[in-house]
């Protein structure tokens, strides 16, 4: 898959996703951030957390200038304590891993309450999704040329939203992009660039890739605050007591 992102179509996709990730993570604060997969994309490059890691499932190089350290691990079994990470990015980590739901469950476990997960994935309801189904049929009969990585498993955005909801991950923002046909030539990709403008306006849900930002919500948890002696700031009003006297004429009885 890493080699595919060096193709013209892969570079076209990376350019759009890089912009989306930079815009999403620049204002997310904390101490620990983790990127799972796809070293070709520096999803944490614009983030300013002091500790940032790139985790891959195999030996690979770092995204230049993006992340300080490199880890190799299983995405579905992260070696981090519960509630220890402030941000996790998943650029195509779900549609390229054999256990996407387990990966997302692990991400929800290691996120702190209020932490965020930023992810991208291929949209099966798109021109690229149709091309993937066509290539699967062609591979059965050993015909045609594949333009997409064969190990990919496109996960629909509606299915992904259900997973996020079950894990108490609330979607904050989302977007679709890359509406050009899947072509192997950079020249022909440039000729179809008008479809990005028309697709965003006319059929926004049919982009080749989707992008989501979700926050971890922990319901029923209340932060403990110091108990201070409450002083009633509103002083009690003083009501003057008025005693009325009868100053009318006094009648004195004459017993004489």
List its traits.
27% helix; 256 residues; disordered C terminus; alpha/beta; seven-stranded mixed β-sheet; Rossmann fold
Going by helix content, strand content and strand pairing, the class is alpha/beta
Q: What's the CATH topology name?
A: Rossmann fold
Describe the biggest sheet? 7 strands, mixed
H/E element sequence: HEEEEHEHHEHHE
Write the layout of secondary structure elements.
Layout: H1 8-25, E1 32-36, E2 51-56, E3 69-72, E4 85-91, H2 100-110, E5 111-122, H3 127-140, H4 157-166, E6 169-177, H5 186-191, H6 194-202, E7 209-216
Parallel strand pairs: 1-2, 1-4, 2-3, 4-5
Antiparallel strand pairs: 5-7, 6-7
């Amino acid at each position: 898959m890493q080699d595919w992102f060096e193709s013209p179509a892969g570079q076209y996709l990376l350019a759009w996703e890089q912009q989306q990730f930079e815009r999403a993570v620049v204002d997310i604060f904390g101490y620990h951030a983790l990127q799972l997969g796809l070293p070709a994309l520096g999803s944490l490059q614009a983030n300013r957390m002091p500790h940032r890691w790139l985790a891959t499932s195999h030996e690979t190089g770092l995204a230049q200038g993006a992340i300080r350290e490199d880890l190799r691990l299983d995405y579905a079994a992260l070696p981090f304590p519960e509630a220890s990470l402030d941000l996790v990015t998943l650029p195509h980590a779900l549609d390229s891993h054999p256990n996407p739901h387990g990966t997302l469950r692990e991400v929800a476990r290691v996120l702190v309450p209020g932490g965020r997960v930023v992810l991208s994935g291929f949209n099966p309801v798109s021109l690229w999704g149709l091309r993937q189904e066509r290539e699967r049929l062609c591979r059965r009969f050993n015909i045609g040329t594949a333009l997409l990585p064969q190990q990919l498993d496109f996960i629909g955005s509606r299915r992904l939203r259900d997973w996020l909801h079950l894990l108490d991950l609330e979607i904050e923002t989302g977007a679709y992009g890359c509406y050009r046909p899947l072509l192997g030539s950079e020249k022909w990709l440039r000729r179809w660039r008008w479809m990005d403008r028309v697709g965003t306006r006319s059929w926004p849900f049919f982009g080749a890739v989707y992008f989501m930002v979700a926050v971890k919500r922990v319901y029923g948890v209340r932060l403990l605050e110091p108990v201070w002696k409450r002083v009633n700031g509103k002083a009690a009003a003083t009501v003057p007591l008025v005693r009325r006297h009868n100053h009318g004429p006094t009648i004195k009885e004459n017993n004489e």
